[in-house]
Specification:
By secondary structure, this protein is of the alpha+beta class. The protein folds into two domains: 187 residues, no CATH class; 99 residues, no CATH class. The chain is built from ten helices and eleven strands. The strands form two sheets. Strands 1, 2, 3, 4, 5 and 6 form a six-stranded mixed sheet that branches. It has a five-stranded mixed sheet with strand order 7-8-9-10-11.
């Protein structure tokens, strides 16, 4: 699979088209199941195939592979797209008879638990938006047509049918307000907007580079924000002593009030820790580096 986040992930002579079924939960809702038993997984995958086949006719020429297990969006938006890679590996190992397109669903194991490749992370269970990864797999020409069409229409027209939404709601045991299909590009764009609305546009630039251009680098050097450099697959966050931080970030009003200066420095360190936590959630290695000194694996001072 390519590390560039196109919703079409090439592996000649076949090609893959990656997307998600996004489930927006009602406020206060928790999902009862992490993964669906095989009968429910197969029915949900069948309905997903019907919806997407109606939206993108060429999709009927491809295998559809569905993970009947839910994840936080950040678990999808990681370098090298690990969830979709795992789904592809499971698809390649699935028994096949004939060449006709098929729908393959992967859900809970015989004990009713999500198998390791499809288990969401415990720390990321509580979000209001959960996503189910899917792949179309097949001949490159048809897959490219599907990829192009999905990129054009899913964000605006990709609402799941009422039948599919109700099936997901009943099967997962959760109240679902909206169910819609997205390409991985769409999911990234929605996450970017969310981060920018929260004043984290600099941080998103690092995540986007790791997803789209992992061979390149970027620098986040914004007023009052942590200094971050991404290159070689890792994000380096600069640590500042109180004096060097003061030289770089403090205003005259801060310097005149030691208590205010100490509060601002503590808030800056908290911001660094938040940056590091979010980058790690996206699967990006974080290294702290003393400004002007060597890198270290330690966290910034509490």
């Amino acid at each position: 699979m390519q590390t560039t986040p196109s919703s079409a992930i090439a592996a000649a002579p076949r090609m893959q088209v990656a997307g998600v079924l996004a489930l927006e939960l009602a406020p206060g809702t928790a999902i009862a199941r992490d993964a669906l038993p095989q009968a429910d997984a197969g029915e949900l995958a069948r309905l997903v195939g019907h919806d997407l086949g109606a939206l993108v006719e060429d999709a009927r020429e491809l295998d559809l592979v569905v993970a009947a297990a839910h994840f936080d969006p950040a678990e999808v938006l990681r370098p090298k797209w690990p969830l979709h890679r795992r789904l592809d590996e499971l698809h390649q190992r699935a028994p096949r008879t004939g060449e006709s397109p098929r729908i393959v669903a992967f859900g809970a194991d015989s004990a009713g638990k999500a198998p390791r490749p499809l288990a969401c992370e415990d720390a990321l269970r509580g979000g209001q938006l959960r996503v189910l990864p899917f792949l179309f797999v097949g001949r490159a020409r048809a897959a490219q047509a599907v990829a192009d069409r999905m990129e054009r229409i899913l964000l605006d027209r990709g609402m799941a049918s009422a039948q599919t939404a109700l099936c997901a709601q009943d099967a997962f045991g959760a109240r679902i307000e909206h169910a819609r299909y997205l390409t991985v590009h769409d999911l990234a764009a929605m996450t970017a907007l969310q981060y920018r609305n929260q004043g984290l546009e600099g941080l998103w630039d690092v995540v986007e580079t790791a997803l789209l251009r992992p061979w390149s680098g970027t620098m986040v050097d914004l007023p009052h924000e942590p200094l971050v450099q991404y290159s070689g697959g890792e994000a380096r966050i600069a640590l500042f002593s109180p004096d060097t931080w003061c030289d770089r970030y403090a205003a005259d009003a801060d310097r005149a009030d030691p208590a205010r200066l100490a509060r601002r420095y503590a808030l800056f360190e908290a911001r660094q820790r938040m940056y590091a936590d979010i980058l790690r959630v996206h699967g990006i290695e974080v290294v702290f580096e003393q400004h002007g000194g060597p890198a270290q694996d330690a966290t910034p001072p509490a």
